Amino acid sequence: MSSQLLRVQCFNVSQDGFGAGEGQSLERPFGHADPAPLWSWAGATASWVNRTDPGGTRGLDDYLTRDHTRNIGAEIMGRNKFGPQRGPWENHEWQGWWGDTPPFHTPVFVLTHHERPSFTLADTTFHFLDATPAEALARAKQAAGGRDVRLGGGVATVREFIEAGLVDTMHIAVAPVELGRGERLWESHTDLLDRFHLDTVPSPSGVTHLLFWRR
Amino acid sequence: MSSQLLRVQCFNVSQDGFGAGEGQSLERPFGHADPAPLWSWAGATASWVNRTDPGGTRGLDDYLTRDHTRNIGAEIMGRNKFGPQRGPWENHEWQGWWGDTPPFHTPVFVLTHHERPSFTLADTTFHFLDATPAEALARAKQAAGGRDVRLGGGVATVREFIEAGLVDTMHIAVAPVELGRGERLWESHTDLLDRFHLDTVPSPSGVTHLLFWRR
């Protein structure tokens, strides 16, 4: 295993394996799915990256949210995590869902068949790459300054990197909710057990943390 | 809660509540207790501070060992963690159990009624304080450069800081072994529930992680 890992952290799916609903739009980044029941376990913790007020829990879930940023030097995401547009860019005004201060604080590599110029918001720079997963990972590791790379999603991007054999560790939180349709991460997570070790850890908050690491 | 926390991390006890056996000596830091069954869960992980070879697990237990050093800027320990001597120092030759490169990499404050000069081994400096828990914590926070302070043990020192109301978070790993006698952390951990929230997390490795945080 390389000393620089490719890690999925705090990626949330429903009990039936969906990471997002159907019909993503500007108003509904998760499509028909209500993101609250998928994400509330993370938002309740003291260390969650988007927390603005003091307080929050410091139990098991907090250990998981702390690792979302620990030793991360770059993020790779698919175009569907960056925004709702498909096909050629109509303009470059859209700069992601996250406002003037995105919560990444590192270089971010957005995979797309339609490249566009890099731009910087606060301490996050977005680059756009038309590249294979292996090429994108090489670029991201170079930019990460010796730190690990986080694979941020969405679902199709996580699947693509798993299939390319590039993912070292994965934390998937299974929320106690069913979505019925949308972007599916897996039929069953047991499909991955030929390639990964797995710890299954039920949390007092109601989610189940699945912790995978490469065999 | 202060932005600088006092944290207990990876402190191991037996099912019957003992953190060390009876009869500590130079040869047996844990007295009659065999430390292996208390510590083996941590030693198996990829991130354990004393790991020398590559490899190791990256599941739940690894999240816990990673936090042993994350954002720690100083350690406080009792004299019984530092060494087996009691009473006035016969000489200053003893420099702890850890050889030329102690695994702390920060200032360490050793509580003792018998002060002695500070000394440095690699990137760890040991200071010796005859002080109350609150005084020692103030010194350690000052030395920690904005980071948290780890309370390293032993048992008597952890109890003393709990009783003084100074501990913010605590990770205690309960190993599937009984010691019968020795240094007892508690009769029952439920005694602490008036002062702490608790997540109880059984690990696939066989230990149970108890995660406390201040109410």
TrEMBL record, chains A, B:
Signal peptide: none annotated. This is Deaminase. It holds the Pfam family RibD_C. It comes from the Bacteria. One of its GO terms (molecular function) is 5-amino-6-(5-phosphoribosylamino)uracil reductase activity. GO terms for biological process: riboflavin biosynthetic process. SUPFAM superfamilies: Dihydrofolate reductase-like.
